[in-house]
């Protein structure tokens, strides 16, 4: 089932300017060097008037709004940053943001007006932990970049657009097959109508989409034209609205049109193989290998079915890429037939010829890249990783996830004290019986099971990293390796030195299990 994500950037033009000035922590630097946040508005021309066309959160908090006369805005706020509206620069920046989403989240992404991005999330949400997790990730990443965003997912572009602007705080997940009822409380402006049409509807007493749905369609079409009824039908799913995917200017593309629509999996696979040959030939001419490949199948009803595959390293092997794509053919719903197939190398990197075997005596090292690609495209790239050491004495900070085939980092774990085979995601509290300050516990209870300690080694004292947080200036942990009567071995620690409360809570925790 098709699901559409709408990203709404309520203060995008002003966010863009603040990023240009000083990054996510926006502000102007006066002569004395201090950074001061001032309300920011963009001024443009509406017919013969100078009006506010965009305002950031600070400006809106002081009563400024879009459409307000420029003279009134500057008079209302004494200290106000005023910039000229640059629609071309805004459109270019919004397209760059859409391309960023295209590369990381879904193969079907487009710009939605002047303040939004629309994404067809079918087949992509499970790779990011589900729809809610994907929306939170999108909004969070935009926030890190200093851009305010709200997001909603629904069955149609029109519904997602409306909910992102009038229902998301900051995210909203509409249930599948939600129908028109979810849109009825929303204002008429949510239907992507012109400002003149919205104002005319309000003058006639129509304030919500529900008011319009209870009105005969013929008078509405006669008074406001076909645009109003079309927007209503698109929002509730009675009329299709294809998303024309954005495509990077430098991307390598291979496409094929069909005189007769195709739909059988075998036919799709045959033509897919021919497209891969064409694409790889062009990649070879440019000395590139593909890292992310999108297959876009345009159906006769103007809907696009998309398949995305990724590789751990740059690849232009025809057989390998064809297998990866053919494994995903079952996810394509051809409907009444596919009339065009397009293969896009969304992400490509340099790939130079390599010498695989220098002599007859060289050892042939196994190449697991193909296996990694197959698994990653089935379970998701982010779920396939390996662990790498990080220079830190604090156990939970001494490890990080890296891609399976990433080069060695050059770091190594310390070997003077053994570490458990399994480190818990978070230390878990345990009940203990121990003599303070230096003795290990005689017994402990973990997850409801009491264990008597037969042998113990320690303590190993680990100090807090005071240069990261002030709270760790005097914090310590005392770690012990303990063996229970049944032979199980655990890694436990006491928070604190056993005497001074400023060093820790003096509570005990279990942090890992030895093999």
TrEMBL record:
Annotated ranges, domain DUF6504: 439-511
Residues of the DNA polymerase Y-family little finger domain: 250-343
Pfam families: DUF6504 (PF20114), IMS_C (PF11799)
SUPFAM superfamilies: DNA/RNA polymerases
This protein's UniProt keywords: DNA damage
GO MF annotations in UniProt: damaged DNA binding
Membrane-spanning ranges: none
Protein's GO biological process: DNA repair
PANTHER family: BLR3025 PROTEIN, BLR3025 PROTEIN-RELATED
Descriptive protein name: DNA polymerase Y family protein
